[in-house]
Amino acid sequence: MHLPADDILRDTGYVAGSAQPSVLVIACGALAREILALIAVNGWSHVRLTCLPAILHNHPNKITQAVEDAVQTHARDGLEIFVAYADCGTGGDLAKACARMGVKMIAGPHCYAFFDGLTAFAARDEVTSFYLTDFLARQFDAFVWQPLGLDRHPQLLDMYFGNYEKLVYLAQSEDAALTAQAQAAAARLGLAFERRFTGYGDLSRALEAAI
Amino acid sequence: MSDDDDLILSDLNDDELVDQMKDDLYDGMKEEIEEAVRILLERNWTPYDILTKSLVAGMQIVGDDFRDGILFVPEVLLAANAMKGGMAILKPLLVETGAPKMGKMVIGTVKGDIHDIGKNLVAMMMEGAGFEIVDLGINNPAEDYIGALQSEDAQILGMSALLTTTMPYMKVVIDQLTEMGKRDDYIVLVGGAPLNAEFGKAIGADAYCDDAAIAVQTAKELMARKHNVAG
């Protein structure tokens, strides 16, 4: 399986999968590797994946419009469309847009919740935890450190993270090097570190139900 | 804006100094702001004039440029930190010299939410505009908000949330005020990244405020309206 480069997933987006699909998954670029793995493992030869730039994660107010545009672009293809986003900070706007367009999406507040499992995540009630996934651990500088200006203004660290206590790395894969990266990120933020292996969590179940 | 390291602030006349303060605030230069505030105090400026004509006016420029996409969050935080330095000098003096009082606001981040950057900016700008602030901090249950509104005899409630999962809690607080028959006693302002005006209306807030400057403007307008009704 060809794995797209993280900077492509972050800034540009990505298209892969079936050349003659009946189902189109429109997803956040941060989920590309996991969804491609699920397509391969499950033999979903009828599924095509279109990823929007993952950096939208840092601009939740732009996600709904980007998804709407992607759905409109592909609506004429006559494919069944599934949106592989949770609410992702859109304040319910994405759910409303999906309902209006007649397409389904992933339940829950964000990818941290569906990787951890929606029920388990809600039950943990980890108010003071900051989360990374595999993708975000690899892209910590591009998604956290640089956009928050911590590379230029480290004195802002406490203003951003002073109320947090722990960085929880929700691991989709067993990868010692990535775990070390996540642990280093926790140290840079001055937070305690916890690694929690989640696998693909409710992402698998949501895609299986939709596909 | 300015990169003149050798500038001697005390050599500037008042107008030049105020302009320089706006530049320094924009650049997040806390020590320079503190020095300039002290210079203006020595020149017998009133604390209120220093606050409004330099710090608040400077932060207005920062806020406008943030809204226009010229400045980003890190720069706004640096500017806010610089303003905070100036405010720390002025605050006790403002109390002594009797600056105009616009009203009292209880503000805090809602239960389950620890994000306070936006809330802190609003609190600071409201304070700069003459509102007395009771800052409850983060993770506040309804009883904390309501208790503080009553014990502090405040007129405005400000609630902040950054998470989609915590913003519905604002309705819990408003509903509780309604059940107590107290809802109309207070102006309720809400804000936070995932919120919008539609949400604010749906939960029964008086207004959703997109940023700190809008919060100040909205609070002033609604306080004036409240006074008009009362009068």
TrEMBL record, chain A:
Residues covered by the DUF1638 domain: 51-206
Pfam families: DUF1638 (PF07796)
InterPro entries in the cross-refs: DUF1638
Protein name: DUF1638 domain-containing protein
Source organism: Aquimixticola soesokkakensis
The organism's taxonomic lineage, starting at the top: Bacteria, Pseudomonadati, Pseudomonadota, Alphaproteobacteria, Rhodobacterales
TrEMBL record, chain B:
Family matches, as CDD domains: corrinoid_protein_B12-BD (cd02070)
Single GO BP term: homocysteine metabolic process
Domain (B12-binding N-terminal): residue spans on this chain: 8-102
InterPro entries assigned to the protein according to its UniProt record, in alphabetical order: Cbl-bd_cap, Cobalamin-bd, Cobalamin-bd_sf, Met_Synthase/Corrinoid, Meth_synthase_dom
PROSITE patterns: B12_BINDING (PS51332), B12_BINDING_NTER (PS51337)
Enzyme Commission number(s) from the entry: 2.1.1.13
Entry GO MF terms: cobalamin binding; metal ion binding; methionine synthase activity
Keywords from the named record: Cobalt, Metal-binding, Methyltransferase, Transferase
Matches recorded under SMART domains: B12-binding_2
SUPFAM superfamilies assigned to the protein according to its UniProt record, in alphabetical order: Cobalamin (vitamin B12)-binding domain, Methionine synthase domain
Residue ranges of every copy of the B12-binding domain listed in the record: 102-231
Statement: the UniProt record of this protein carries the keyword Transferase: yes
Record GO cellular component, one term: cytosol
PANTHER family: METHIONINE SYNTHASE
Family listed: Belongs to the methylamine corrinoid protein family.
Protein name: Methionine synthase
Organism: Aquimixticola soesokkakensis
